[in-house]
Amino acid sequence: MILKDKIAAQLPDWRNRVRKLVKESGEVKVDEVTISQIYGGARNIKSLVTDISYVDPNEGIRFRGFTIPELIQLLPKPPGAEMPYAGGLYYLLLVGEIPTAEQALEVEAEWHARGEVPQYIFDILQAMPADTHPMTMFSAAVLSLQRESLFAHEYHAGLKKDEYWVPTLEDSLNLTAKLPAIAAYIYRLKYQDGKRIASDPSLDWGADFAHMMGVENKGYADLSRLYFLLHSDHESGNVSAHATHLVGSALSDVYYASSAGLNGLAGPLHGLANQECLGWLLSVYEKFGGVPSKADLRQYAWDTLNSGQVIPGYGHAVLRKTDPRFAAQLEFGTQHFPEDDIFKLASMVYDVVPDVLREQGKAKDPWPNVDAISGALQYHYGVREFDFYTVMFGVSRLLGVTANAVWARALGQPIERPKSLTTAMLEAAAEKAKAQA
Ligand code: AMX
User: Fold this and answer.
1) Residue 231 among the catalytic residues
2) Distance from residue 392's CA to the centre of ligand 1 (Å)
3) Pocket, ligand 1, Cβ cutoff 6 A
4) For 11-42, what is each residue's pLDDT tens digit?
5) For residue 151, which phi and psi values (nearest 5 degrees)?
6) Rounded alpha-carbon distances, angstroms, from residue 57 to 273, 287, 317
7) What is the chain's alpha carbon radius of gyration, rounded to the nearest angstrom?
8) Active site residue: 112, 365, 371, 380, which one?
9) Model pTM above 0.85
10) Cβ atoms 317, 256 nearer than 8 A
11) Tens digit of pLDDT for each residue in 173-217?
12) How many angstroms separate the alpha carbon of residue 310 from the centre of ligand 1?
């Protein structure tokens, strides 16, 4: 299999590189930790390593060194499509190189061969109460597939540590192959007529998702490919990536670990932000009975801030410029439906809100993040069930976290175990620092 061969060929060098670095420079300091960071959610403590993506404060995300515009240009695309194959993206995340069209199609073919979802998954989903959150359904489906894990099976049969990554890659392909069908079925079951739309083997992973959702529209197939690319990875410190990595570090297989990551993604401070953004846009639209004037929008933004709320979709913990994931979606909407009212409103917010946030002077980053617009694009194509948006985020995010899981096992990354202190110990450290000052 191409992915296995390509990773295997790189492994001796990678293992040597890491071994040498730790052996020769293991004591070199790269960061210091303050009390406010310990109480502040480990914010910005440099303590993780991944070579799959990196968030630059000024440029935003790079996947394997490539910016989003570069990826949209360079990754192979299906004939007549504007956005690249997800299979090519997965190849890039796993292998670190831009694939040829043939290589991207090999990943797509692997997914086709592994894509059939066992009936018991549909039975489990159907058995859940109708008001179950779609993220609970999604996470439960992923967890329920755990019985299929080759890693778990081979580990118990005595697999050597150097080989852990091989069944982890198999598990990752088997799991990611099934995500579009599982997610689309959750959508059909929860929000549509409950009838499952069969996969179309002539379609790529992204377009097949759109088809199984029941949104038969060329634009939506491209939007799905774009969406799955943009949300796939964002370094390893965000909650979904880190939760997956942490659980995987105990040698729990990718089904256990991915389900944990999805549970983190379900939190309002993480994956749910995009629905809050769309909610805010719709509340503006409703209040003014349409797209408001810039002056009215400006006033509404100030009213939101003065009532003690944040403007959803704006600001970022790391970035200090417009998120390139926002820019790519803005560009998509501008190309495809510039006259859509909610899209027009989202663009107008981009013209107005950064100035308002700068005037207010609190947010370190007044620019839009990925969530400021993604809901508006789904809304245009009629996917208007907000709770479902995080499931799509999850489909995409599992591409990144499983790619990271393969490499974590390939490089023999150990179980995570940061050290805790007590408040009294931190107080003592603070006193000591004062006495020395
Ligand atoms: N509107 C109003 N105030 C904002 C703001 C916004 N969009 N963004 C930041 N601020 C405020 C903060 O609330 C904070 O106020 P405080 O001092 O009174 O607590 C102050 O500015 C400084 O915050 P910061 O250091 O600039 O941001 P942060 O790193 O603490 O938080 C984020 C980053 C994204 C949570 C924050 O900007 C925010 O709440 N944005 C709106 C919600 C949002 O878009 N979330 C999506 C995040 C992306 C994701 O993970 N999916």
Assistant:
1) no
2) 23
3) 270, 273, 305, 310-317, 362-365, 369, 371
4) 999 999 999 999 999 999 999 999 999 999 99
5) -60, -50
6) 20, 35, 9
7) 22
8) 371
9) yes
10) no
11) 999 999 999 999 999 999 999 999 999 999 999 999 999 999 999
12) 7
